[in-house]
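Lecture notes, unit on binding sites. The following record was shown on slide 14. It pairs a sequence with D-4-phosphoerythronic acid.
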Amino acid sequence: GGSDEAKRNAGESAAEAVKDGMVVGLGTGSTAAHAIRAIGRAVDAGMDIRGVPTSFQSRQLARKEGIPLTDLDSVSEIDLAIDGTDQFAGGSLIKGGGAAHAREKVVDSAAKRFLVVADPSKEAERLDHPVPVEVLPPARTTVAADIRELGGEPTLREAERKDGPVVTDNGNLVLDCSFGEIHSPRELTRSLASIPGVVEHGLFVGMADEIHVGTDDGAEIR
Ligand code: DER
């Protein structure tokens, strides 16, 4: 992935949009982590913020940074969500590298404003990154067959420091599905969402309000 400097600049740029009294969706991954650390510093400086985590990892980090936490069903609305991405093209994203995209999509879509944080390596002309698809474990073979029907190549995501497959925070499995260049993200979104056994897929079409792209000396907003 991109440089940590660029990730930090992206995260801190988006965190500047956090204002006193806000409820903030806290994304998952190493770039969103920089935003969470910046929000933690704002809380230390006296800002009144409540965070809604999107994964075990973002909850852990938010607690470590001293951000008061709440849950989606305890707030009337989320003012702002800040989250990372694996790839972006135009206003569409592919997310799910951290296998947290099911809860991320709920929080990111519930927010009044959704800011994406990324380093330049995530930018593309067209989306062509494999699309993570969270599936109910018993359905993995039928979902895989349906993905192939759509022209995709599904690969069960194996864990690195655990024998067997990655298991999500929700107890499900992940198929990483390569489709090559995705000519119509909106159409693929509809197709994936209609497959029985699919819990959530990593295409976030038309959801991002701003994309903060970090560079080694600052950030650009797309
Ligand atoms: O899981 C996700 O969608 C994350 O946002 C993620 O994949 C981006 O992670 P990174 O900021 O560590 O590259």
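Take-home: The mean pLDDT is 97.
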